Design the sequence.
């Protein structure tokens, strides 16, 4: 056992050493020379054939140059070069790791990943910034996106549904900054989030009733708090007979629904022409006979179109918004509407918001990385020029006898007032004390 641990430590130490990078760079140059000799033939090889070729050539390179490394170290270099030629180099293992949620690269030697909501630095590095940019451009190539000094910032959707953001010089001072958000290939279902502890069965029952009765819902929370995953889950409650249109800056939603039309905004060309905003898409979606409109994130002028849609018969609409609390969510809606050029009074804007939104679901990422619904709040109209809200559930963790923190949602015993939930009231109740 001790020998295995020592071997693993030696492997990790070598793979993170400058010697490893120097030998790999020299072996890479050797491989490029051999590939040039092969010409077009190399482009037709499978990954298995490339691996066999790299194993042979790296072994020959180490013997002929008398490189002072053992067989296991030769294997490490060959494996790294196979990923370099046939995949995405140092990123490949992270991209294939299902536990990794985010990959954050701050220059070629500073890489962090998020697992279960917790950031941790990983012992992986690139040879230099040029190496990092080469891999990033390989990812971008099939997407048709340009990255250079004249276009130093790129936001793109990956083929697997993930999201890639890259910022390079002159905007980034200390080397290329790469942010990759990964998404599950199998979307989470309500039972999955209950099992993970994101919310309780009682809250799931309330949210299911709210969605099926066409309540308008905003999911509020901070960065990486789980807003998109929760939106995916709530959309799963939409009846299969309805037509759903999703609108996003970068398509991330993967709804478990048979009739979904996915729209994605367009940033425009190098000269700034051809921009199609979320507001444009939202305005156009009203002509596409939607039963439900789902906006991936409300963060600009589209807020006016969304409020108008919710107020003019497009019930059951949903979206996410960056805010730290339900009250802050309302303030942010007002601010965005003001930036969008809303011409009415403060009172009329608040009345529109109060009439449009039925529920705000606040979700957050705790200090231990766990994602939890922090509150479920109903909007009840206006009073003295203030939007009236009532909190139905609140997250308050408790400690058990062993001082271990346990999830706990407190029901405030209040009854939802929305007339949309009227059909759920007779002889029924949501668990936890909320009677409808």
Sequence:
């Amino acid at each position: 056992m001790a020998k295995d641990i020592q071997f693993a430590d030696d492997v990790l130490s070598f793979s993170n050493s400058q010697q490893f990078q120097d030998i790999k760079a020299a072996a890479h140059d050797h491989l490029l020379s051999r590939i040039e000799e092969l010409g077009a033939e190399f482009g037709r090889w499978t990954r298995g054939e490339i691996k066999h070729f790299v194993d042979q050539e790296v072994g020959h390179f180490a013997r002929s140059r008398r490189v002072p490394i053992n067989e296991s170290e030769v294997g490490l270099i060959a494996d790294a070069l196979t990923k370099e030629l046939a995949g995405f180099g140092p990123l490949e293992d992270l991209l294939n790791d299902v536990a990794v949620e985010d990959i954050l690269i701050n220059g070629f030697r500073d890489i962090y990943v998020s697992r279960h909501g917790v950031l941790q630095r990983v012992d992986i590095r690139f040879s230099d910034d040029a190496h990092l940019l080469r891999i990033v451009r390989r990812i971008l190539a099939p997407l048709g996106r340009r990255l250079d000094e004249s276009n130093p910032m790129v936001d793109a959707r990956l083929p697997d549904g993930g999201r890639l953001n890259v910022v390079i010089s002159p905007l980034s001072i200390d080397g290329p900054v790469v942010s990759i958000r990964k998404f599950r290939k199998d979307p989470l279902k309500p039972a999955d989030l209950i099992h993970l502890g994101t919310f309780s069965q009682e809250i799931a029952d309330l949210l299911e009733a709210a969605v099926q009765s066409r309540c308008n819902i905003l999911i509020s929370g901070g960065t990486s708090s789980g807003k998109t995953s929760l939106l995916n889950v709530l959309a799963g409650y939409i009846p299969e007979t309805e037509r759903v249109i999703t609108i996003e800056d970068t398509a991330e939603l993967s709804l478990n629904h048979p009739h979904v039309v996915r729209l994605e905004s367009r940033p425009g060309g190098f000269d700034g022409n051809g921009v199609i905003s979320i507001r444009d898409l939202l305005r156009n979606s009203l002509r596409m006979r939607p039963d439900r409109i789902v906006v991936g994130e409300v963060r600009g002028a589209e807020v006016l179109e969304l409020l108008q849609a919710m107020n003019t018969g497009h019930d059951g609409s949903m979206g996410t918004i960056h805010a730290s609390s339900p009250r802050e969510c309302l303030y942010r809606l007002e601010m965005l509407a003001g930036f969008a050029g809303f011409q009415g009074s403060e009172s009329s804007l608040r009345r529109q918001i109060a009439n449009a939104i039925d529920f705000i679901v606040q979700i957050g990422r705790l200090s231990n990385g766990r994602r939890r619904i922090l509150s479920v709040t109903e909007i009840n109209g206006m009073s003295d020029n203030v939007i009236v809200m009532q909190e139905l559930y609140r997250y308050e963790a408790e400690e058990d006898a062993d001082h271990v923190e346990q999830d706990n949602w407190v029901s405030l015993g209040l009854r939802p007032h929305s007339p949309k939930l009227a059909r759920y009231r007779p002889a029924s109740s949501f668990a936890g004390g909320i009677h409808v």
